[in-house]
Input
Amino acid sequence: MKQILVVAPHPDDDIIACGGSIAKHCQNGNQVAIMYITSGDAGGIRYGKDELAAIREAEARQAAALLGINNLFFLRMADGYIEINKENLIRITTLIRAIKPHMVYIPHDRDGCRDHKETHHLLREACKRAAEPFFPECGKEPWPVETILGYEVWTPIEEVSYAEDISDFIDRKLAAIQQHHSQLEYYRYDEAVKGLNRYRGIMTGKGDYCEAFQLIKYSA
Output
C-alpha cells in the first residue's frame, strides 16, 4: 500500500489532471490524500468570495467522494495570489512530513496558469525540505518523497515522461469533473479533458484513454 498526495492549486485541478489515476490508486488499495492550495474563491463573479469558496469546497468533496476519497486538506490561500514564502513553506512541509506520501502529483512546470506555476515551485521546495534533517518547526521526522509527477491542466506537457492508462476509469473521472458545476458554466472541462485523454491514449499507445505526466523525481 502506498500513500499518494495530489496537490491542486484550485478545486477541480486534481480531477481534470489525474482523476483517472486517483481512481486507479484507490482500486489498487493505495491511500490518497488531496491538498487544495486555494478554495478557488476567484473562480467566478456571480458569488462573493466566501460564498464561492464554500461552493467550490463542497464540489471538491462531492467529486472526491465519487473516487473514494475523504482525506482532504484545504489550505485556503488566496486564489490568484499563491506565493513561496515562509508561512506557506512551513505549512506544506509540515503536512508532507505528517502525511508521508510515497508519490506526489503537482502541476508541471510550464502549465499556463500563474497559480499552477507557483504551486509547482512551492511543492518542489517543500518536498526537498521535508526530506532534509533540518527545519524542526516542520516536524522532527524527515520524509523523502520517492516520486513526483507533474500533471497537465491548462497547457499540455511537451515531453511526456509517463502515461497512465485510465480507460476503465474515464467515466468515473468525467462524473467527478461534472460535480464542479460552478466552473463548467465557464469552461467545459469535462469535454476538453476527455479529448485530451483520448489523444494521449492514441499517441502513447498505452490505452484508449490515458493521463500524461512529467517525471520530476523517481527513486526506486
